[in-house]
Amino acid sequence: IVHSRSLTELEILSPGVLGVTAGGKVAFLESLSSDSDRDASTTKILQAHGSEKAHVRKLSPHTLLLPGLIDTHVHAPQYAFTGTGYTLPLLNWLEKYTFPQEKRFASTTHAETLYPKAVSRSLRCGTTTAAWYGTLHVPATKILAQTCARLGQRAFVGKVCMDRNGGDGYVEENAADSLQTTQEFLDSFEKIESDRVKPIITPRFAISCTPELLRGLGDMAEKNSLPIQTHCSENAAECAFVQELFPESKNYVDVYAQHNLLNPRTILAHCVHLSDAERKALRKSGAGVSHCPVSNFGLDSGACDVRALLDEQCKVGLGTDVAGGWSMSIVEAMRSAIIASRVVGFGKREVAKIQDGHTTAHKTLSLAEVFYLATLGGAELLNIQQSTGNFMRGKEFDALVVDLDASTIGQGGKEELGTRTVEVFDHDDAAAMLEKFVFVSDDRNIREVYVAGSKVI
Ligand code: GUN
Ligand code: FE
């Protein structure tokens, strides 16, 4: 059993015992000493918790029990064209591929066909919580929220707001119209049958919203204490255009601050090109960042300096940003976060060499850190750390059963090599298993997925 207690504390219980209540909450979590009689020790632990009658399930030695993964930024309508169009930079990609695809969700039939596929794929990849973007359309985005509820995913779902720069007609009439449809969308949540699916205020980004719309959404979020999601500082051309559209703002982050959209309930996707001043303002506001490394590679946006964000004590989680990102998998985002961090390090070394012939030490994100970002960090970013993110007692049991005995990750056990017997891969080494999970596993290794104690995969 592996989970993060904080950014710097990865806890590995090898083996461990985890109790789940009938209501789907974590009742207890204890480690077993590996040399004693495991069955006897388990019985003792159950007795100590008054759970002698509990149904006990033993997982095989090549299995990891992990907290559910949290995707803090993903676009459901973009699932269909995932993996195509990576020759264009962000703004051209939006106009050529994204807006025409999103327009199609004016049809509820289209939404009913595609949204179950997107949400199922996300769950299949082990995402127990997702912050989804829908489209401009209320009926289709309601279908997305209902789909999450029906398939059992914990989710935030946003109707996208845009009242300018929507390319060929992908735009709402005006700010008032966008605010009114957003209110309609919020009201529709009374009929959603899951208390784990919630609305989120979603101005697409500063470029696609007039100041009037941004301000209106900021006030609406404040009035209803709602979370907010948007994009920020993803690509250089985008940043330049924002400065042009908002000459009165000090910088990109300040645009959101000036329109009442920057607070502890705000999730800013990307934040690749922030200045030190912007990181400071972000931290002070309590807003956080959804780091989307796969997308930043896919759209050639840049490598986000997550270390700088963490050093500043900004909240950070991971996002797939499908279809900017080519994968619905937060595991792919974890390994890409490590690679992105290395790339940041390469750049810093080059600069240091030019400046003074020295290399500066750059601390690449560690495995434990990216695991935190994918789980507890995401929960903290979405302000749901009371319910999920790790296996602390009282939280809801959002979990993955990961089987690492599949042929894809290297078989365990011993192998005859001529006259020698070599250890191919030691399944008793939980830390190595976690490394395997992050670097070589895929959805085939994810055998079961639970949300609040209910099996959803
Ligand atoms: N910025 C504004 N809209 C989008 C989008 O759909 N995807 C990405 N990656 N960036 C955006
Ligand atoms: Fe995005």
From TrEMBL:
A Pfam entry, by short name: Amidohydro_1
Organism of provenance: Powellomyces hirtus
Catalytic activity: guanine + H2O + H(+) = xanthine + NH4(+)
Functional note: Catalyzes the hydrolytic deamination of guanine, producing xanthine and ammonia.
InterPro entries: Amidohydro-rel (IPR006680), Guanine_deaminase (IPR014311), Metal-dep_hydrolase_composite (IPR011059), Metal_Hydrolase (IPR032466), Metallo-dep_hydrolases (IPR051607)
EC numbers for this chain: 3.5.4.3
Pathway field: Purine metabolism; guanine degradation; xanthine from guanine: step 1/1
Identification of the protein by name: Guanine deaminase
Keywords: Hydrolase, Metal-binding, Zinc
